[in-house]
Amino acid sequence: MSVEEPVLDRVNEIITTSSVVGTRLIAIDGPAGSGKTTLAKAVASRFDAPVVEIDDFFCGNSLHSWWPRFETQVVAPLLRGEDALYQVRDWRGDEFGDGLRGEKRTRWAPVIVIEGVTSSHRALAASLACRIWVEAPPAQRLARGIARDGESHRELWRRYMAEEAVFFAEDRTRERADLILDTSDRRL
After folding, report:
1. What stretches of the chain adopt beta strand conformation (E)?
2. Angle at the Cα of 1 (from 7 to 25), degrees rounded to 5?
3. Terminal-to-terminal C-alpha distance of the chain
4. Going by C-beta distance under 8 Å and a sequence separation of 6 or more, which residues neighbour residue 184?
5. 60-111: per-residue pLDDT in tens?
6. Can you give the residue ranges of every domain in the chain?
7. 91: exposed, middle or buried (C-beta count within 10 Å: 0-12, 13-18, 19+)?
8. Secondary structure of the chain: what % helix, strand, coil (to 5)?
9. What is the spatial distance between Cα 2 and Cα 125, in angstroms, rounded to a whole number?
């Protein structure tokens, strides 16, 4: 999947005209398997921006429980113009739990990309200079997830897709987006 220049130009236009002052946080949100990581890499490259991955925070089977840690360890320092030092999720040692392993530092920069499911959460929405929603049909997202994680994760993916659909409907995430991208044709 490649990211076309007009998409990056549109992101630049949004963050340039945003009413948010100070650090420009760009959230790239949407359901799992939709293409958020690919877009985040391209946006980060265009703006020489660090990327904070929500996967470093997501714990267990909850789309809510880790938000206080994310806000305290990442959002608050970055908005103050400081680097963020945060605990990282232990995916290898505790794949289905909420264990943490080590720390990661994200340097402060004028533009910072936050990538992952729930990254434009209602609690953070007012601090974001740009909210991007990335979507693709469920069957295509499931196929992408199985290709990445293996057939053994098929039922986990199905359950998770149902849970995130409920979360997004309650949070009204897509409705707040400044830009909506459909990756079903594998191009952005």
Report:
1. 24-29, 51-53, 84-89, 100-106, 111-115, 128-135, 179-182
2. 45
3. 7
4. 135, 136, 137, 140
5. 566 667 788 889 999 999 999 999 998 887 667 656 666 567 789 999 999 9
6. 5-32+45-182
7. middle
8. 45, 25, 35
9. 27
SS3 assignment, position 92: coil
Class for the domain spanning 5-32+45-182: alpha beta
Strand 100-106 with 84-89, pairing: antiparallel
User: Which residue shows structure tokens 């009413």?
Assistant: 19
**Assigned token pair, 37:** 């990581």
What DSSP assignment string belongs to 99-136? -EEEEEEE---SEEEEESTTTT-TTTGGGEEEEEEEE-
Residue 6: burial class (beta carbons within 10 Å; 0-12, 13-18, 19+): exposed
Rounded Cα distance between 65 and 161, Å, is: 18
Nearest to 112 by CA among 18, 20, 44: 44
* Chain segment 129-159, per-residue pLDDT in tens: 999 999 999 999 999 999 988 999 899 889 9
